[in-house]
UniProtKB/TrEMBL annotation:
This is MRH domain-containing protein. PANTHER family: MANNOSE 6-PHOSPHATE RECEPTOR-LIKE PROTEIN 1, MANNOSE-6-PHOSPHATE RECEPTOR FAMILY MEMBER. It is found in: Endomembrane system. Its main location: membrane. Residues 28-168 form the MRH domain. It comes from the Eukaryota. Residues 1-20 form the signal peptide. Coiled coil: none annotated.
């Protein structure tokens, strides 16, 4: 019997040890990084100017909730700088969550636990949202919130099912509003081209000064004759292009009017 108890305790310890290896480290109020390096981020579905999700029902009561994953919002009646707000009877609003406390993994789901908030009625409220992965749900949907607790301290729990609850399911957009964007080909060419121009002129001037003995300006500029004629070449190119376009437009107008000259 004693041996059986020891085996049970050992297996329990191993199970706890294995499960404890799978963690999701908080990055900010709406994202965490798992032990396998994958990111769970809700920033892609965040409402920047107000709560993204509203009218979320509470089970067995006529109360509703508003939730925004990342950006805090305010509602005139007592919900100031919150992420989760409860609307009660008489259109009174109660803050439920302002800051994420932790992201834990329970049965494969990420459980987002918020820090407890004290409302204007001196009662404590805490939000708990289970993030359930479903690639077919975007931006996602809520179950009803379930209330537990005593007369002075309440906890509100619900399940949010979304593609963004999956590993790397949504882009991990950094705080600041804009997503991570790759540089375009044109931007890369400009970044490379502009420094090369500076190197070309500086190196050319040093070469002309110390190797050829040119000490006057603008003769020190590399390929001085070409660059001195460059503005006039641009002018000639623009005039040629403009005259060509003008000629085509005139010819087209004459053809449309039926006044084109007969070909010789």
């Amino acid at each position: 019997m004693a041996d059986g108890s020891m085996v049970f305790l050992l297996l329990s310890f191993l199970a706890v040890s294995v499960s404890s290896l799978e963690v999701c480290t908080k990055l900010d109020d709406c994202s965490c990084k798992r032990s396998n390096g994958k990111i769970i981020s809700l920033r892609n579905i965040d409402g920047k100017s107000g709560p993204k999700f509203t009218g979320i029902k509470q089970k067995s009561k006529a109360f509703t909730f508003s939730w925004n994953p990342c950006t805090k919002f305010s509602i005139p009646s007592h919900c100031n700088d919150v992420l989760l707000c409860q609307r009660g009877s008489g259109d009174l609003d109660y803050p439920v969550a302002k800051t994420a406390d932790s992201f834990t993994i329970i049965e494969g789901n990420i459980v987002l636990v918020y820090e407890e908030v004290t409302g204007f009625d001196n009662k404590q409220r805490k939000g708990v949202i289970t993030l359930k992965c479903d690639e077919s749900k975007y931006p996602g949907n809520f179950s009803e919130f379930i209330e537990t607790g005593s007369s002075s301290s309440f906890q509100y729990a619900a399940t949010f099912t979304s593609k963004c609850a999956c590993d790397d399911g949504c882009p991990n957009v950094p705080a600041g509003g804009k997503g991570s964007q790759r540089l375009s080909t044109g931007s890369i060419l400009l970044i490379v081209f502009i420094p090369l121009i500076f190197v070309y002129f500086i190196a050319g001037m040093l070469y002309n000064k110390y190797h050829k003995g040119t000490n006057t300006f603008p003769e020190m500029i590399p390929n001085h004759s070409f660059w001195s004629d460059f503005p006039f070449l641009i002018k000639d190119g623009c005039v040629f292009t403009f005259e060509g376009i003008t000629g085509c437009c005139v010819s087209l107008c004459m053809r449309l009017k039926g006044d084109s000259y007969a070909k010789i």
